[in-house]
Input
Amino acid sequence: MDAFYAQFVRPGDLVFDIGAHVGDRVGSFRRLGARVVAVEPQPPCTRALRAIYGSDDGVTVVEAVCAEAAGRVAFNVNSANPTISTASTDFIRAADGAAGWEGERWDARIEVGSVTLDDLVAHHGVPAFVKIDVEGFEDAVLAGLSRPVPALSFEFTTIGREVARRCLRRATALGFHAFNLALGDTMALASPQWMSEARMAAHLRSLPYEVNSGDVYCRSARRPR
Output
């Protein structure tokens, strides 16, 4: 994981981890020498993050949903599988009855505060990398960003390809020009060449349903290494 993220993160960088869960990526970013703002709405997860990183001045935990606007958001909890808890009701509808998602139940709803990426930039500075993994709410997260950053990633699922398409459009509007992807949790870029928005959109459309999920990586102007 560290070797993979090293192509996006350097010592001294600031990273936003949107959908931090219990911090496996946070640990990687810290080992790479980055400061991390970890945004996570689920109280059990934020308690875990604070237990693990509470004495680390390089980690700031924000208990909130990252969204298009600041305020309050209804958040749907999957108690048996909290990694797929989500603020997106469209995601829940898409998963209902879908192959590979059988038996998933979002059995509780909590109301939590929301922040935007612009809010986080205003409070913490401009990140070198933003990781977004929020179960079908990625487009809402990107809608709350109005300025480019050097690089970011967003999760996609094959039950919600239109969300990824909206994310690509938004990323392009923000100035990102090169795209790649990693399938599942492979931590490896699937293409030796970075793609245009159009090529990435076509690639996502062509992926077999069984791929299930992965992450799209977006790069703006190349940073000198």
Summary: The helical segments are 2-5, 24-31, 43-53, 89-95, 117-124, 138-143, 161-173, 197-206. The two ends are 19 Å apart (CA to CA). Strands lie at 14-18, 35-39, 59-62, 65-66, 71-77, 108-115, 129-132, 151-157, 178-183, 213-219. DSSP finds eight helices and ten strands in the chain.
